[in-house]
Design brief:
Low-confidence stretches: none
Largest sheet: 4 strands, antiparallel
Number of helices: 15
Strand content: 5-15%
Shape: flat
Number of strands: 9
Helix content: 55-70%
Strand order of the largest sheet: 4-5-3-6
Radius of gyration: 22 Å
Length: 341
């Protein structure tokens, strides 16, 4: 395996940090922290690069909060400056290196891949197999072991100064295990951690039809016994090599449909999952009651429209339009219908 030893100069360059700042600011320029940063952008970036060069940079203080959809999660939020910019600067350099390691059927947080590509690929696998083994990892990000993560990072990256920054980020929020949900770097490192599982499944178990989105993955076959053997082998591998456990692992006929990445997949069509529809209805009800016309509501409606576009949900669209019309507000109805055509 090719390793990379001389990455520091590309990472620390002024050009890289200008690009990283642009990426970190995307969609956040109206926030107070972004406005404060932009007033003295040049000086702050120079100061940040200097702290990295002399080794005094340390990951900042996390703001911790909880989200409850689809389940309770603890989220760790770092400030835009300096931490988000450092993370983007790292991914600018390391992302292309790491992406070459990933299998073609890994879809989470990888540029050029996403939900719809994963959904289409899942349909292809479903149509040519009778059964599926579907698995999920219990508390994936909080369960990532630091020593294993650092070992994986060192396989490909051997630039000492880059590794020092990465190791500081890995160990920044917990004692001996866990990656902070909310960091850009956590998404990439999570993929790296699970890439070991991908390699084991593809090259040791020789599974042809396998797809993964973060810690949710499916293995397909035409007989149940093969899937049972794979499940037992994977359970042993995960516990021994990655110190992870299943939160679920079940085998079912593909004719019964597969709930994966927010869609329920059948051989001839795709629908939204019940949990996804419930969440969408709750958010739509709030928008309609408040008759909100804002950048936030625009982004929500655009996201919902894009989500529904790839599934059979004409009745759901009609219901939302009907609810909007009942407000009697013509401006709001026009705004609403724009996104739910």
């Amino acid at each position: 395996m090719k390793t990379h030893k001389h990455l520091w100069n590309d990472f620390i360059s002024a050009e890289n940090f200008e690009i990283a700042a642009d990426h970190a600011l995307r969609g956040k320029k109206s926030k107070i922290s972004a406005k404060i940063f932009m007033r003295h952008r040049e000086q702050k970036l120079a100061r940040l690069r200097k702290s990295l060069k002399n080794g005094t940079y340390k990951t900042g203080q996390y703001r911790i909060f909880f989200v409850y959809e689809p389940k309770k999660r603890q989220v760790f939020m770092l400030p835009l400056y300096p931490d988000h910019i450092v993370h983007h600067a790292l991914i600018n350099i390391l992302g292309p290196i790491w992406q070459k390691l990933f299998i073609s059927d890994s879809y989470a947080c990888i540029p050029g891949r996403g939900l719809h590509e994963a959904s289409h690929r899942c349909m292809q696998m479903l149509r040519r197999n009778k059964y599926v083994l579907q698995c999920d990892i219990r508390k994936f990000y909080p369960s990532i072991r630091h020593e294993i993560m650092i070992k994986i990072l060192r396989r490909k990256i051997q630039d000492r100064r880059i590794l020092k920054v990465l190791e500081d980020i890995v160990c920044s929020a917990y004692t001996e295990c866990g990656m902070p949900i909310g960091n850009l770097t956590s998404q990439w490192m999570g993929n790296l951690y699970m890439n070991d599982l991908d390699m084991f499944i593809k090259h040791k178990l020789h599974v042809r039809d396998y797809i993964r989105y973060c810690d949710d993955f499916c293995l397909f076959a035409n007989d149940i016994e093969t899937l049972r053997k794979w499940r037992n082998t994977l359970q042993e591998y995960l516990g021994k090599e990655l110190q992870l456990t299943f939160s679920k692992s079940f085998i079912k006929p593909t004719d019964a449909g597969i709930s994966f990445i927010g869609y329920r997949h059948f051989k001839d069509y795709v629908i939204l999952t019940k949990a996804g529809v419930k969440k969408m209805k709750q958010n739509m009800r709030t928008l309609i009651q408040n008759r909100e016309i804002s950048a936030h509501s625009r982004s929500q409606l655009a996201a919902f429209s894009g989500w529904m576009k790839w599934a059979r949900c004409n009745n759901l669209r009609r219901k939302f339009r009907s609810d909007a019309r009942q407000t009697g507000d013509n401006a709001f109805i026009r705004f609403y219908n724009k996104y739910l055509q």
